[in-house]
Amino acid sequence: MRVLLVGAGSVGQLYGAHLARSGTEVHVLVRPRYAEEARGGFRVYERRRGLEHGELFTPDGVWTEASDVPAGHFDAAILCIPSTGLNGPWLPTLCEHLGSATLVTLTPGLDDFQKIAAYLPEEQIVRGLITSVSYPAPMPGESASEPGTAYWIPPLTPALFEGSKERTEPILQALRQGQMPARRVSGLAAQAAFGSGVLMPVVAHLETVDWEMARLRAEKLPELARTIEQVRGVLEQTLNTRAPLTLRMIGPRSLGLISRFAPRMTPFDLEMYLKVHFTKVGAQTRMFLEDYVSKGDALNLPTDAIAELRAALGDGES
């Protein structure tokens, strides 16, 4: 099997390392400034085992322009980029070069599937949901034998994919052979959307209190609960389906409990991870909030809490 990863950041390195373990031929498409690093390979650490002895993932090929990707060479391509990365002329060019290959999108945006479907038949596209954590290591407060990417696959959380069996099965088999649990499911679009509908408000409110869980509990829980409630309303109307019961039950008390216990569950500093990762993809967080407001306003739904949160974030880091 031959796979092209679009993007070789922490997510791309995580999926690439597991695919390479299975014997898959793995190439990456990256911006020119990252090409030399990619050709040298990436050190990847399984976080539970520490940051001393990682494995080296070296792509079989490195490409810097979608137009240079060999037409018809790959069986699948996997988008390992933020939703904001879908803009630009590279996407239609890549789709043209893929031929009949499967395109897996790990991007979380509500409209991402439709953007891609403008250039490929829908049956050729597979949705994916990232259920693991990966980040540039070492983070502040950590030490590693050399810089790389650390990852953690929580128990009982396989990588999820939705698409035809013909399209998904080769990817599932390759990931499983590379020791990443993976499963084919249905209803992934709604599951991913409602998951982001909680995560994005949490992340955005955390950013306004310097990524401190204690301050989130002390200052923001009522606002956070109201923001999540408004996002849930937008998503239910947009997707024409009810949110999961667990999401409908979220309130200040449950959010406070989650903020206390979640940091105890991870083998790394959760606050620091959230700061490092979501500062890097801050444009995506802002895009999500703007999209919720736009969709909510079009549906005459309340969006004031979402809009106030978006305004509080400002433009973020450049």
From TrEMBL:
Pfam families assigned to the protein according to its UniProt record, in alphabetical order? ApbA
Q: Which Gene3D superfamilies match?
A: NAD(P)-binding Rossmann-like Domain
Start and end residues of each Ketopantoate reductase N-terminal domain: 3-132
Q: Which organism is it from?
A: Lujinxingia litoralis
Q: Which domain of life is it from?
A: Bacteria
The protein's name: Ketopantoate reductase N-terminal domain-containing protein
